[in-house]
Amino acid sequence: MEKLYWTKGIFKNQLHLTRNNEQIGLIEWKNMFSSEALATMKGKRFILNRDFFLSKLEISDTNNRAPLASIMINLFHPKSDVVINGKRFELEIKNFWQSRWAWKFNGQEIIIFQSYELLSKDKGQIEIYSADTDELELLILLGLFVRNQLILFMLLLLLIIFSILI
User: Fold this and answer.
1) What is the CATH topology of the domain spanning 2-165?
2) Cα Dmax for the chain
């Protein structure tokens, strides 16, 4: 098992991904609510994008903008699927607080994400249980992008509830 760690302040526009205190990845948004982000992982560059309603997430190659994968996220349904290179991966939100989620392949968890903090500062770890798939980088970046969208969902819900109560 390999462990990676990430940090991102809630009002910050960068997410840093590290292994053994060495940065191996970065996701950078123009601002907190930006729908597009540039990602770098192990020297490869990607574009992450979400649709207007926060539910469809895509990852593309920066060189030719070719789509590599897309996933639909439903806040009220804990499972989603993505197909990359003809392989089907399942994303599962593991708890109500959305602080633990995992990618599965053939029913086995291959990447587990754990967030340590809810809204004040986002940080956590990633446990990788399979090193033999070419899609790991894409799944890690999508998994982290999903987390950012879940935070935006929660902030939006809090804003709606707050506006109703006032």
Assistant:
1) Porin (2.40.160)
2) 53
Mean pLDDT of 76-82: 80
Distances (CA, A) of 161 to 74, 96, 153, 164: 19, 18, 12, 5
Q: Tokens for 157? A: 């819900």
Nearest to 5 by CA among 99, 120, 22, 149: 22
Model pTM score: 0.85
Dump pLDDT digits (tens) for 118-142: 655 578 999 999 866 779 999 999 9
Cα angle at 48 between 44 and 54, to 5 degrees?
A: 165
- State the amino acid at position 118 in one-letter form: L
- Separation between Cα atoms, residue 163 and residue 166, nearest integer Å: 5
Across the chain, mean pLDDT equals 84
β-sheet bridge partners, residue 105:
89, 108
Cross-strand pairs, 27: 15, 39
* The pLDDT of residue 54 is above 80: no
